[in-house]
């Protein structure tokens, strides 16, 4: 045990003295959170919209006012004719144009069939879709307020409710994604690189010619990274809650426990890489291309897995990030309990055990 | 100094190293690193493996330190088999690889403490073993190993290899790339360790260091060409050798080689060592060189040194192969 | 008097407070074999880097092949060859590819390069090995090829940094035969070594101690001056007096 502690101490010394590694360990999560949170946000805030109000009555004005005052939109342009729409889009002045029919107020109050048209700029389909969704939501709210107390036997409302994330905040999507990627990257890459470094530097040669069991070397390597990855999880969660206003819906202890499990998975992967390669570059290459790329593609974070061809969907099952991503979303966003993530947890446990056993089996007590 | 070879071998044959018919190949048998090597090192001996890069010295060390398994043959350290009892061997040997292999980002004292812990001891417990060497680097003990000069790194590496009081010490080319002054200092340190009864096997490409060893093995191309005490080897392979000096050195060597009685001619420091094919033919060589226009020629017989012998053995090996 | 190809005057290089090279002055003539000795850390490597145009001096004068080390480093690099023990050839290229590559770097025209490299391969007796990877050859061969490649473009000066470390005694001497030949053709050879017998093979030898040149003369003169039996003894006398650790 004393030996193990000496090793762990040494590993911390390596880490704390290596400014580059520390920058990556602490800087990368912060940077990714800020990037996704602000720069690359797919979320809608203060989107410019145009209005073509053919009604100019009380209801239309109320609704326009409502749109303009929501935090999602600002009305930047009033159009007079439908012909102007095209031109406005071309100039990039607005994302969508909201068109009120003549007699809007009348239709709304008497025939229950008032129609509002949204015209979106589909050259950027994702954003237009989101903006139109938001606008529809505002319109529905308006409608509910107006008729909430009235009896409307024949009214049919199609309602698309965005569950768990009513405001379609993108942080709900990317925070679990960033956590998954960061842990995958740091856990697997940093661990494997640090072990392979000992091989490259020749220190492994001395360690092997000592009564110490190689397993101890390897496990002690994993400890500092386990700690630092855990710090990263906490860092990301803190940023999510306090900077991006994203509450943790489910149980925090459960989330942390699951994260710990996933860190172990990635460390085991890192150990497995390091047992098989001889140079730091190869270790890094395998971690980045062999693990990070699939992690990115198959976690469901960037591209929905349901939309993939069947073979790809099957492949995605062996990618650990997919399971962790789904666990984090379940706990953090949906607020679900352990019974809902038991299956994913079980899969991760099995994967971790397999990786660890394989890594230990592969680890040599000699140079060849 | 007393002769520890006989002294200890009578009492007990513990910290000896025995190698029998070891063969080791790489790249699926295409590259032969060691070819049927046999060797005995006695307890308390300072033994030198002498040969150029690629002779197989490092491979032999790696087999003895249990880092590699031999393809064929058997080797024992302290009575333990290098394949079957490798955990036992790892407890009792100290090893200093050819490349500086300590943690560059840890300080001298941190490296030392770490390796002491690895071998389940402490620096305090075995301080007496490293004291003579350690005092030389102690003033810099908080400096990172990466920032040390070559000579200091070497001393630190030796301290780290010694900290657990090994019975057998393996030093792989500790003096390569080191200037003559530091090399001499290093060998002085080895003498101190030898006096403590530690068996030391050291490899070097510098032939002149042979004189610092009790016994040496001359290695070339994975084979041991000769094993014995330096004097015995010199005596055994002694052949009449002459130093020929003149002015235009490069042309002189070439002309000596073109003389039909010359067996070999090589530059040796300020001398050129000439070995004749049959009987010494110094007079006819001088005559021959005179005709070629060489002036200020001097000839005298010299005692061949270890490099003469090494060259002789290499040439013999080439002729046989 | 032969043409001077290296000229330095009070050449100094400091790293912060540390004076690595301390006002060294010397001249090397065309076709001379100049031994550049010193203990580890005496300042040899720094001095050599300055002369190769890789490092600017702090003060003093230095001209290599007639070019100034402050302003004309590009010209210097064109007129020198360089070989070190640590880096010489690419192990994963064949002998021929290495020769072509390094010849190409020094701007030898393609047709000439082809001729020269074939000539070199046959002169070194490597016809069989020409298409083998350099990594599979013994160190001695690598060093010979590396040296031949470094002088393929007929530089005025070739810098050799411990070219024979770890090489067997026969190959080491063959290597020196090649050095003699190059010098005979008029290439100046600037060489560092830890083998003191090799110091004897040089026309003149300088020994650096603590950043300064402590002695500079022919091996014979140095031996006489220090009443030493060989260069090893000369070196030990001078280097033992060194104050700074390596």
TrEMBL record, chain A:
Keywords: Cell membrane, Membrane, Transmembrane, Transmembrane helix, Transport. GO terms for cellular component: plasma membrane. The keyword Cell membrane applies. It is found in: Cell membrane. It is a multi-pass membrane protein. One of its GO terms (molecular function) is ABC-type transporter activity. InterPro entries: ABC-2_transporter_component, ABC2_TM, ABC2_TM_bact-type. The chain crosses the membrane at residues 21-40, 174-196, 222-243, 255-275, 282-303, 341-360. Residues 136-366 form the ABC transmembrane type-2 domain. Belongs to the ABC-2 integral membrane protein family. This is Multidrug ABC transporter permease.
């Amino acid at each position: 045990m004393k030996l193990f502690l000496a090793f762990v101490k040494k590993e911390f010394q390596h880490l704390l003295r290596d400014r580059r590694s520390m920058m990556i360990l602490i800087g990368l999560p912060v940077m990714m959170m800020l990037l996704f949170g602000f720069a690359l946000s797919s979320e809608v805030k203060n989107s410019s919209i145009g209005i073509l109000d053919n009604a100019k009555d009380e209801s239309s004005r109320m609704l326009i006012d409502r749109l303009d005052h929501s935090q999602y939109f600002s009305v930047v342009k009033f159009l007079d004719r439908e012909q102007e729409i095209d031109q406005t889009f071309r100039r990039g002045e607005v994302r969508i144009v909201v068109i009120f029919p003549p007699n809007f107020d009348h239709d709304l109050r008497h025939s229950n069939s008032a129609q509002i048209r949204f015209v979106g700029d589909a050259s950027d389909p994702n954003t237009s879709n989101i903006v139109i969704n938001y606008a529809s939501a505002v319109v529905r709210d308006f409608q509910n307020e107006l008729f909430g107390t009235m009896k409307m036997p024949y009214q049919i409302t199609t309602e698309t409710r965005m569950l768990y994330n009513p405001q379609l905040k993108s942080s709900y999507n990317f925070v679990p994604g960033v956590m998954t990627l960061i842990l995958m990257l740091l856990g697997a890459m940093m661990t494997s690189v640090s072990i392979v470094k000992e091989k490259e530097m020749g220190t492994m040669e001395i360690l092997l010619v000592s009564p110490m069991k190689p397993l101890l070397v390897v496990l002690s390597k994993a400890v500092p990274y386990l700690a630092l990855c855990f710090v990263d999880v906490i860092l990301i969660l803190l940023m999510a809650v306090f900077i991006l206003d994203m509450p943790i819906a489910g149980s925090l202890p459960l989330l942390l426990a699951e994260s710990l499990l996933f860190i172990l998975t990635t460390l085991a992967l890192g150990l497995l890489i390091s047992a098989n390669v001889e140079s730091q570059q190869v270790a890094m290459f395998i971690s980045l291309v062999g693990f990070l790329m699939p992690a990115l593609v198959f976690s469901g974070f960037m591209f929905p897995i349901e939309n993939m061809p069947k073979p790809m969907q099957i492949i995605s099952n062996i990618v650990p990030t997919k399971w962790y991503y789904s666990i984090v979303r379940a706990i953090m966003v949906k607020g679900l309990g352990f019974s809902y993530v038991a299956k994913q947890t079980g899969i991760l446990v099995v994967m971790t055990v397999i990786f660890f056993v394989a890594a230990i089996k592969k680890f040599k007590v000699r140079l060849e | 100094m007393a002769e520890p070879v006989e002294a200890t071998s009578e009492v007990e044959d513990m910290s000896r190293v025995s190698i029998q018919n070891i063969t080791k190949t790489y790249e699926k048998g295409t590259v032969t690193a060691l070819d049927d090597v046999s060797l005995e090192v006695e307890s308390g001996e300072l033994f030198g493996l002498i040969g150029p890069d690629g002779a197989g010295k490092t491979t032999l060390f790696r087999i003895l330190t249990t880092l590699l398994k031999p393809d064929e043959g058997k080797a024992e350290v302290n009575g333990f088999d290098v394949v079957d009892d490798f955990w036992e061997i790892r407890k009792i040997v100290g090893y200093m690889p050819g490349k500086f292999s300590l943690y560059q980002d840890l300080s001298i004292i941190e490296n030392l403490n770490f390796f002491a812990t690895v071998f389940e001891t402490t620096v305090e417990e075995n301080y007496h073993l490293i004291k003579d060497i350690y005092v030389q680097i102690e003033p810099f003990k908080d400096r990172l190993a990466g920032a040390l000069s070559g000579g200091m790194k070497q001393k630190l590496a030796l301290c780290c290899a010694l900290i657990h009081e090994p019975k057998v010490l393996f030093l792989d080319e500790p003096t390569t790339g080191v200037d003559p002054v530091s090399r001499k200092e290093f060998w002085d340190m080895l003498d101190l360790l030898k006096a403590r009864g530690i068996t030391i096997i050291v490899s070097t490409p510098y032939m002149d260091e042979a004189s610092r060893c009790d016994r040496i093995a001359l290695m070339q191309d994975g084979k041991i060409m000769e094993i014995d005490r330096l004097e015995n080897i010199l005596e055994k392979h002694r052949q009449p050798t002459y130093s020929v000096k003149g002015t235009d050195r490069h042309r002189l060597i070439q002309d000596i080689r073109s003389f039909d009685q010359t067996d070999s001619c090589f530059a040796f420091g300020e001398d050129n060592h000439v070995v004749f094919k049959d009987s010494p033919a110094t007079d006819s060589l001088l005559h021959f060189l005179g005709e070629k226009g060489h002036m200020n020629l001097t000839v005298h017989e010299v005692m061949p040194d270890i490099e003469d012998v090494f060259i002789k053995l290499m040439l013999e090996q080439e002729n046989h192969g | 008097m032969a043409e001077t190809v290296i000229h330095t005057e009070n050449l100094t290089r400091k790293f912060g407070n540390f004076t690595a090279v301390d006002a060294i002055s010397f001249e090397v003539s065309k076709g001379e074999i100049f031994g550049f000795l010193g203990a580890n850390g005496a300042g040899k490597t720094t001095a050599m880097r300055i002369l190769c145009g890789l490092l600017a001096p702090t003060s003093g004068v230095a001209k290599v092949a007639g070019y100034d080390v402050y302003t004309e480093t590009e010209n210097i690099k064109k007129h020198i060859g360089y070989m070190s023990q640590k880096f010489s050839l690419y192990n994963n290229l064949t002998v021929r590819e290495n020769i072509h590559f390094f010849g190409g770097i020094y701007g030898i025209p393609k047709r000439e390069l082809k001729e020269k490299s074939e000539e070199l391969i046959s002169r070194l007796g490597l016809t069989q090995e020409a298409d083998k990877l350099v990594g599979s050859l013994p160190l001695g061969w690598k060093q010979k090829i590396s040296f031949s490649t470094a002088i393929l473009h007929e530089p005025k000066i070739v810098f050799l940094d411990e070219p024979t470390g770890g090489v067997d005694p026969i190959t080491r001497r063959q290597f020196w035969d090649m050095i003699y030949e190059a010098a005979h053709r008029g290439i100046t050879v600037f060489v560092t070594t830890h083998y003191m017998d090799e110091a004897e093979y040089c026309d003149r030898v300088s020994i650096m101690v603590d950043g300064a040149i402590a002695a500079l003369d022919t091996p014979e003169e140095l031996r006489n001056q220090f009443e030493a039996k060989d260069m090893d003894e000369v070196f030990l006398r001078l280097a033992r007096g060194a104050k700074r650790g390596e």
